[in-house]
Amino acid sequence: MMLDRKRILNNLWSEIRGCVSLVESNDEDLLDLVEKLKGFRLNLKAKHNASNNQSSKTQDIKLLLGASIPSETLIKLPQISKNKGSGTTTSKRLKGDKEKAMEKNEKKKRLCRGCGELSYHDIRNCP
Fold first, then answer.
1. Distance CA 49, CA 44 (A)
2. Residue 86, pLDDT score
């Protein structure tokens, strides 16, 4: 059925292009063709509106979905999420796993081989 429809549409476009190519050199015939096509379109539109009692939006949705429209649509609200880095101050900022681990393991004191003290420096940065 779909192949027949495509073939018919291809034939229609072929006929329209053929008519346009025949009258494109004559302005009078070209205007006559435009007027006849407008009249034909208006007749089809009136025929289509008379046979269609449903709203066009409902019909378009039915064509798109291929089924009947549900009578009730339930829309759920999205879950509220906190994005990392949101907020105005640093106290409200969410910290990542790496940052949390660094806070847990605060700097440990080391034995400096330069001065022999147990402090937060080593021989490379010994005062």
1. 9
2. 55
